[in-house]
Amino acid sequence: MLKNGYFIDDIIQITIGNIKKILLSENIYNGEYNFDAMLEGVDQLAIDFEEADDKEAVLNYFIFALSTLIYYFVAEIESSLDGVCEDIIEFYRNIAQNDYFEIHEINGVMLSTDQTNEIENNQLLLKEKNYQEKDLEYAKNVIDWSLVKI
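RE: above sequence
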């Protein structure tokens, strides 16, 4: 658990539960995937940032990553994979930043360069950046996604 109370697993489990409902609906898979319906369903999970609490705002980045990944399968544009990685990194960056605010009792939104660098060097964020780089390298070399085992 991070000091600010975010349980990453809880955030992901909430999203996965909602995503399963969408992906298991009849209009998503009927012999083949309906990616447009999938995108529409996932996009409905996002919450307007102005109305979102902290946890919902962080959750949006995870939803954006999933939406970008689905878009990759729709458009088959390799650069979409970069967007997936960026969205996931932003998810972890936001968690690290919120944790930093709480630890240092910061209520404002302007950070110094040193503060920004400290957030960017958060171990959770650095670890995820490393994972995303490896995943991106792997994904860009996949020729037939039907052969990939999850």
